[in-house]
Amino acid sequence: MKVRPLPPFVVNKIYAGEVIQSPSSVVKELIENSIDAGATSIAVFIRGSGLSFIKVVDNGEGISREDLPNVIKKNWSSKIRTLEDLERISTMGFRGEALHSIASVSRMHIRSSTDGVEGYEIYVEGGNLMDMRPCACGKGTTVIVEDLFFNVPVRRRFLSSSRSESSRIKNTWLNYVLSHENIEFHLRSSNRIQHYRARSTLDERIEDIYGIKDRQELKEDDLTVILYHISGKAQRIFVNRRPVVDSRITEILGRYDVKNYILFVEVPPALIDVNVHPQKLQIRFSRSLKFYDRLSRFVRGRKTIIRMEENLFTRREERKEESSDKGIFEWKDYIVVSSRTKLLFIHRQRALKKILESILQSSKRLSSTTLPVPMPIKFRINESDRNLLRTYGFDIVELKNSFVLKGIPQIMEGAAPEEVMEVLSAFSDRKGPFDLKRFINRLLSVASRHYRMKSRAIVERLFSMENPGLTSEGEVIIYELPAEKIEEKFM
User: Fold this and answer.
1) pLDDT per residue over 142-196, tens digit each?
2) Its pTM surpasses 0.85
3) Which 3 state secondary structure label does DSSP give 407?
4) Residue 470 in contact with residue 476, Cβ under 8 Å?
5) In order of start, what are the domains of the chain with their CATH numbers?
């Protein structure tokens, strides 16, 4: 079979099909262009499923007379000049094919003015510029798309029902309403009108649409994550205000039972690649960002971050002299802290383990307590290991080729002999270099079973620490039960 080049009009239709797959794709691309034009008001008008008529009106900077015929040309862009620009994309639209692709498969009018005085209009059919003339219009741009896929009938056969396509358009429109709170949005579809006025904060916009049940934020030098746990039903992800689909993010959120949410991620543009999908629905994070690991740790601790303004307890120096532990009680192996809006269940042993780990890290040497009866050790411990053990509060002496334990760390006071040997076995059963981390973990596990500390003191010490909800191994210390969850059981 002979190989031959495809005719340009066929190439254009294939190219357009990658970008424009449905009427909602048109709405997406046109809204993004309006956002990049600096619009503070964007209105979308739809008839039926959008195949016959889509109109997007904005009050952005507009398109000049000389640029208007060029906006439909393949790979022309106002946003990319160099390869470096492509590596740090900060605009919504950038690929340079959106208007060209839409024009290739529709009949399209574009009216625009840069000053609100002099305006021009072009008419494009199947990608061909048919007419250009002066027109009266306000500052900004209006794009009208009619008879979508009129010249690609096979594409129409693969579209969903009119109702489904209309729903997709609304869903697409809502993505930009959510992520651009400073813009006024208007949608008219099937004689139904929706309108959201501009807001000063993202919180206000989310509250307007869904209602916020909880808000958590992670802020670091190269990464900001805001997770809204919402009252309505939705799962939406935005990276640098761009709506995206990411199965790994969805899996991480599902793993920790985050069901209805709006997630915003902000990273330096140079650390993501947004040019990996024709419709810009997927992105790639730089390996140096280690994004998924950081997100997982953040979400894992999401339910354990306590809002200090609720005054579950006051600082020790601010608290009046009192012996009462009001609001704190014990149940089984848990410390329960009550407040007006929630109950916190704190795993006592894990909390103590985290506290003792902090004590160990801040002490050069652990205090030792002398055993009433020395304990024989049945395996050999060399002098170097004995010196290390003294640092952690173990007093071991050698007597005629045998070893005796005379003292143990004070934090292990009350431990049974077999528990002590469980810790020291780190020296007897090792293979290869000594695993200090494993030894310390055993020490803390045993110590946390016996260390004596009042419940209030545990709570106060725990919440003075960074990320009180997780151990260093990622085990959950705190479970939060909101009052509304309890109230639901009585409805």
Assistant:
1) 999 999 998 888 777 778 788 888 889 999 999 999 999 999 999 998 778 999 9
2) no
3) strand
4) yes
5) 8-196 (3.30.565.10), 202-300 (3.30.230.10), 324-491 (3.30.1540.20)
